[in-house]
Structures are given as C-alpha cells and as structure tokens.
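Teaching assistant's notes for section 4

Start the section by putting this record on the projector. Ask students to predict, before seeing the second block, whether histidine kinase will look compact or extended. Collect guesses on the board.
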Amino acid sequence: MPLGIRIFLVYVLFIGLTGYFVLNTVMEEIRPGVRQSTEETLVDTANLMAEILRDDFKAGTLNQNRWPELLKAYGERQPKASIWGLPKNQVNHRIYVTDAKGIVVLDSSGVAVGQDYSRWNDVLLTLRGEYGARSSRSDPNDASSSVMHVGAPIRDNGRIIGVVTVAKPNSSLQPYVDRTERRLLAYGAGLIGLGLLFGALLSWWLSAALRRLTAYAKAVSEGRRVEVPHYRGGELEQLATAVEQMRTQLEGKAYVERYVHTLTHELKSPLAAIRGAAELLQGEMPLAQRQRFVSNIDSESVRMQQLIERLLNLAQVEQRQGLEERVAVPLAGLVDELLSAQAGRIEGKRLRVEQAIPGDLALTGEPFLLRQALGNLLENALDFTPVNGVLRFSAERIGEQIEFKLFNQAEAIPEYALPRLSERFYSLPRPDSGRKSTGLGLNFVEEVVKLHGGTLSIGNVEGGVEVTLRLA
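Reveal the predicted structure now:
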C-alpha cells in the first residue's frame, strides 16, 4: 500500500475517533446544559412570585383576590413569539402555592387545590429551609413527560409560612435541544469533511514530494542528468540537500578516479613519443632529422594540451545538473562569429559556405556552452571536408524546438562507426593527416545538448555528412 494512502487512512482514523468522541461528549452535554439554564430561570421566577404573593398569602386572601383569575388567564395566553426561528404559541409555566403544611392553596392549572404536596421535594425541602427542586414524570411510562419543579419560600419575619413552586415541562425545551443537536451534527460533519479533505491534500502533497525524491534518486542511480527537487524549508528540504550532497560526494569520488585513469591512459602515447624524441636528440644527428624530432615533440605537446583542455571542459559539463543561465542566443549571429574565427582554414581549403538561418531565430540557453558546442561541430566538419568542398548551415523552428543542421561534403562515415561517434576518446582518422583527434569533441557537444534538453544525431546523407541538433 502506498505511503500516502497509509498516512491518509491513519489520519481518517484519528479524525473519525476524535470527531466521534467530541461530538458524542458535546451531544450528551446539550440536554443537561439546556435544563440547567432553564432551572436557573425557574429559580428567579419562583423567588419573584414568592415576593409578589407574600402579603396576600400572609393575609389569607389569595383565593379572595384576583390571583386565580390572573393565573388562569396567564395559562391561556398565546405569545405568538419566534425564538431564533422556533415558534412559541403557548406559555408552559405552572405555578402553585402551598401553605406551611404542604397543602395546595392556589394552582394555575386549578387541579391540585386542597391536595397534600408536603412529600414532594420542591415543597418538603423548601419548608426545611433548603433548596427545593424536583423533576417528575406526569406519565410514569413516558420519559419525555418529565416536568421540572423549583420551589421558593414565602417568609414572614424570617419564618417560612409557605412555598411557591414554578414548574415547566421538559418537552417545551425539546425543540431547542433538537435544533442545537442538528446544527451541531451538521457543523461537525462539515468540519470532519474539511479535515478529511485537508488530510487527503496533505497526504497527496507528501506523497508527491517523496515521489520526486524517489525519481531523483532513481535517475541519479541510472546516470541521468536531473536537477535536485526544491522544497521550501522543513525536513524535506534537508532530506533533498542531504541526498544531493551524498550524490555529489559519491559521484565526485568515482568521477575523479575515472578521469585520472583515463588521463593517465591517454597521456601514455604522447609522453612516450616525447621521451623517445628527447633521447634521440641527445645524440648527434643531421639537422633535418633533428628538426623532425623537435617537430614531433611540439605536435605531441599540442596534442597533450588539447587533450587536457578538452577533458577539463568535458568534466565541467558532465558534472553539471542544469544550466546556470538561460538567455536568447541569435543563431545566425553565432554561426557568423564561428565562421569568422575559422576564416583562415575555410579560405585555405577554398570551401563554399552556405547559410540558410533566419535572422530572428534564437536558441535559449548558455551562450558560452552553445558557442563551444557549435565550434566543435565546425572544427570537426572542417577536418573532414575536402578542398573546394561545401559547408551548409540551416535551421528552422519545428513546434517547440529548433532544428539546427550542419552539412559538410565528405566521404560517408563507415556504418560500424556511426553509433560510436559521440563516445569518449573514439575518433576516426583525419583525411589530411591520417591522425586521430582527442575523441572528446562530439562527446562534449552531446553533453551540452543534453544540458539544453535536446538531442544530437549524425548520419550520412547524399554527398556528405549531416549533423542535426534539436534544441528547445
């Protein structure tokens, strides 16, 4: 199972359990919370009524005044109120008064006058001077029929002479409880959904970041040139930096070992020639022969210098993972500059140069590397083009790429050599001298082209050889 999916499943489990316990706890607290708030209101109401009824109760005139009518009228009122969107069309308080013995003397419902309520906690505890409250079912078989009762003492000079009880059915609170629970469930589901979406995005981002690192490590192990993934701070950036440092150190060590071995091998031949010529020059010999050996020493020294310089240039390009700058390089102007630099050789061989490159066509990349790469191609073409031969430059834009072609009139390249032309140190004998080059020029060109995201191809065409570069 992919790491991202595992992370997401763990996140889902965590969010699910957390959401369940939080919602369950809050849901269980809603009903008690609403009832506690209602009970606090009942306490205030009961104590207010105890003060209002005290004088008439003390005088024994409760039933003789208008109180029964007032309480009856109160019970018949229809407020037609809208409380946060919920309608309230009737009052739900029941108010009754008991004397010091617990006998009901006034009841807003009119059903309990004369009954003994002395054993109910709201009356019993209040008469004792304690807080009197109870919750009783009007129907013993119906849990939703419970009614809250809160008593308040009627005092005469500090002595409790009666009790006022205010009652409210819990069923009148249920619509508010239900609405709160529905809203809470909706908000909870929404938050859980957002949490899961965030978890999915987080898992996708983390998986994508790790896949980029994995692809980078795989590409490095395969020897491909890739740029290290970039992250903005955090452990992923540290991991990417550590992987890049490890790659640099490992590749650097292997690279140095390979190049030291290669340079040692390639320098053996010119060093042997120079040493042999130097030993012979120590003895007596004709002047013409001495000049020939001195010329050999000079040519081998030049060969060594070219080999070292080209190896250094190639090493610099091979070690790079990307371009240091990207600017527009006019292609026609670059070719003209290279032709001017090689004007002496071109005129010496009386070559015909044809250029068909639009003036507005430009390559995007590093000017220095592009100049060196095209310069190597031109030098290679000049080596194989015969006297009075033809050089032809052409370029065109094809889609998102620019296709550059260099044709030189020459003998066809042997089939066995075509696949190896860009190999390091592989070279064919030059027609003029019969000697081989360092075999690093085309390899350098290929590395530069890869850095620019392009391809190099060399093939035989009618009348000669054509090199094609496809660059972005």
